[in-house]
Task: inverse folding
């Protein structure tokens, strides 16, 4: 199969809602896919907990079998879940979790690191090797999107707590993800519900948020997720997940060398009137490595558009290959510890 086509699938992170390994799952990994997210429903996401129905019927063996089948088709893969330390937590009773993110403030650094290690060991038993967490945004104003998902408004506390958790997770060989760069202190409307919402904070107001990301980078975090909406002080015209200015800031001033993951590229706050494929191509041009999106027919549509964009000269072949190889490299190194 053409390498460009396989690379186009390698940079996609589709969210499959259930742990059943479907025909669509098999097609994705057979086509060149490397990473998938075991997702949740909108209701579960808003509740920050998996539904009683899922908790009753989903088994550890089912989750592990999903990963086994993906590896049988694609070799080294990344199987991701949201694991936010008291926030959104996809593995429900299979892994340790706090009732609320603020509960972690009752723990010392060694306890937090042990908590991260325990979570990682539990995830391994479920076939998971990639955590989309922790959240390190400092919420200092209205923010329905990040409600009940953050630790504190103190940058030093958030940086310390997040770093301890990341070290615990990654010393077990899993990949942790600090999110959502560059920080979202005030977001008036959930990006799921608005295609015009922005972050209006000044650079001075963002500075504490950025210190949190610097702390996680110093702790060795292997992935960082960009935010879903524009941050006016950095790039008022482009959502962070498709902004070359935001990615350039993360790579440059903050010297991050790991994998850059987009937030959902199919959110209204990110689309802003564009197609999902348009945003995918813009994100790759900006330097993002891995693109989160819902599963379904759009996955093939986006991969096809990426391929055609390269063949037509709109997207540089080197940009796609670099991103695809970054994803493959992370997948091959996961669990080597």
Result:
């Amino acid at each position: 199969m053409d390498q460009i086509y396989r690379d186009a699938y390698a940079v996609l992170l589709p969210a499959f809602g259930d742990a059943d390994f479907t025909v669509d799952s098999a097609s994705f990994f057979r086509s060149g896919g490397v990473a998938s997210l075991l997702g949740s429903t909108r209701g579960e996401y808003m509740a920050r907990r998996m539904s009683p129905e899922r908790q009753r019927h989903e088994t550890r063996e089912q989750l592990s079998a999903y990963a086994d089948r993906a590896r049988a088709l694609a070799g080294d893969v990344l199987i991701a879940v949201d694991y936010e330390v008291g926030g959104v937590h996809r593995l429900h009773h299979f892994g340790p979790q706090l009732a609320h993110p603020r509960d972690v403030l009752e723990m010392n650094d060694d306890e937090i690191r042990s908590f991260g290690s325990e979570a990682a060991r539990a995830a391994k038993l479920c076939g998971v090797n990639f955590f989309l967490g922790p959240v390190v945004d400092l919420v200092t104003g209205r923010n329905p999107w990040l409600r009940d998902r953050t630790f504190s408004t103190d940058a030093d506390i958030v940086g310390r707590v997040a770093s301890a958790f990341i070290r615990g997770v990654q010393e077990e060989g899993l990949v942790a993800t600090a999110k959502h760069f560059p920080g979202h202190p005030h977001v008036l409307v959930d990006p799921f519900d608005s295609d015009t919402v922005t972050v209006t904070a000044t650079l001075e107001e963002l500075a504490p948020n950025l210190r949190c990301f610097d702390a996680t980078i110093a702790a060795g975090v292997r992935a960082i997720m960009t935010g879903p909406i524009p941050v006016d002080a950095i790039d008022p015209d482009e959502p962070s997940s498709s902004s070359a200015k935001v990615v350039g800031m993360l790579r440059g001033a903050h010297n991050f060398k790991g994998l850059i993951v987009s937030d959902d590229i199919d959110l209204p706050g990110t689309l802003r009137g564009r197609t999902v494929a348009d945003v995918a191509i813009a994100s790759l041009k900006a330097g993002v490595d891995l693109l989160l999106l819902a599963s379904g027919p759009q996955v093939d549509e986006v991969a096809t558009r990426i391929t055609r964009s390269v063949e037509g000269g709109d997207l540089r072949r080197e940009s796609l290959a670099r991103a695809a190889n970054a994803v493959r490299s992370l997948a091959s190194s996961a669990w080597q510890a």
Observations:
- Residues 146 and 332 are 32 Å apart (CA to CA).
- The chain has 13 helices and eight strands.
- The chain has a mean pLDDT of 96.
- The chain has one domain: 3-333.
